[in-house]
Amino acid sequence: MSEALVLGGQEVIGVSRVEGPIIVVEGAGSVGYDEMVEVLDSQGRLRMGRVLEVGENMSVVEVFSGTTGLSIDGTRVRFLGGPMHLPVAEEMLGSVFDGMGRPLDGGPQPLTEHYADINGQPINPTARVYPRDYIQTGISAIDGMNTLVMGQKLPIFSGAGIPHDQLAAQIVRQATLGAPAGEQPSETAQFAIVFAAMGVKHDVADFFRNSFAESGALTRVAMFLNLADDPPVERLVTPRAALTLAEYLAFQREMHVLVVFTDMTNYCEALRQISNIRGEVPSRKGYPGYLYSDLASLYERTGRIRTSNGSITQIPILTMPNDDITHPVPDLTGYITEGQIVLGRQMTQQGIYPPITVLPSLSRLMKDGIGKGHTRADHSHLAAQLYASYAHVQDVRSLASVIGEEELSTVDQQYLQFGRVFEQQYIHQGPTENRSIEVTLDIGWRLISMLPQDELTRVSPDEIKQYYEAAHAAH
To answer: Which of 3, 132, 282, 359 has the most crowded Cβ, counting Cβ within 10 A?
Structure first.
């Protein structure tokens, strides 16, 4: 067994029940929760599993590749005495693995002495370092108004048919450790990328693989792929295997690691399926009551610690069923993480890419990663002014839909024009366009200068003199 570390154990012949991906084993003593299991059918074929539940004389085991072909009497179950351990090495960057961490690209298992428990270790809160260094993604709607900070967990809320895959690939290609405006990022500013796909179609997996290869980013990407036709149960292991490698690279090799998950909704569906088969009392929409703590066990494996110069930054992507942001998966994710980037269907239909809806989007750590010494001194005030002005645009649009644009005041018509240009020039940018933070801020000032100076309530007089007047005169 190459992908797990065998720690010893015991063997039982015959099972008492087989149901879906679950088998119930009786007669095994001293079995532990989350213990790895080898399951052999009557033909001697091997499949892996893990213990979900332990009783006095009974163990419930989930079989990763399903139970098709297993019989009650002819199945042998070998308990391995410990949880799954994954071999981890820096050489795994540039390789593609399945959801269990086995090489998919024909390469061998990494030669390493490091085997890590895929469940990880909780980070002691007192050992955490507060995130303060911003990450430049090259995307204005993120860098300018919802800045990503190194060590943050910032999910992307999307929907079916919205180009979140394209956005994720662009972030992976372009993400660098940010430098103040006017300065060049250092040569070591690029991230190691750990990418985990759960329940995605083959064409989506091929898109990511080709996108990373064409841009040259594949050499610093480790991909874990659980495809739509792979066993759903393996989806529960995929993000944990990916985070195990990320923790090794960040905290032992002291690298800056960006972890991208897609699609967390598929992960939660697999969790719901297992919960239903086990007969657990369902919570909202049939999801188990421990969905919050299960998601937290993944999201909280993120951050920076005092004993290492490395970091883990996490971008989980999830599709909201029926675009419902109150659905349990985005709802609970929003509670655990530090903000969200919300993609909108209306923006997509207008041909705007990336279709980021600025108003419901939020980065809770943004205030600590921008400003003098990080981006530029005017960043915080400019972002607040852009947000306030664009929020007023929505009120003006609602009024115009009732009385007509012709009846609006001159200032309100200027706001309408600002809203259109803001969406077309600030939010909208090509999938290969990589904007520096200085370019993003300068575009913001150019757009703000379309409004009368009296309307600017969030920026200082010095900033108006330095940036607004020059941009306004250019109109």
So the answer is: 3
| Residue range 259-284, pLDDT digits in tens | 999 989 999 999 999 899 888 899 99
Say which CATH topology domain 86-368 has: Rossmann fold (3.40.50)
Question: How many CA within 13 A on the CB side of residue 394?
Answer: 9
- Using a cut of 0.85, tell me whether the model's pTM lies above it: yes
Burial letters 131-163, b for 16+ CB under 10 A, else e: bebbbbbbbbbbbbbbbbbbbbbbbbbbbeebb
The CATH topology of domain 10-82 is Thrombin, subunit H (2.40.10)
> 197-250, pLDDT tens digit by residue?
999 999 999 999 999 888 888 899 999 999 999 888 899 999 999 999 999 999
DSSP class per residue in 8-64? --EEEE--SEEETTEEEEES--S--TT-EEEEE-TT--EEEEEEEEE-SSEEEEEET
**Are the beta carbons of 136 and 173 closer than 8 angstroms?**
no
The CA distance from 458 to 386, in Å, is: 9
Instruction: Give the three-class secondary structure for 429.
Output: coil
Give the three-class secondary structure for 170: helix
Place of tokens 């109150």: 326
At 205, list the tokens.
């997996």
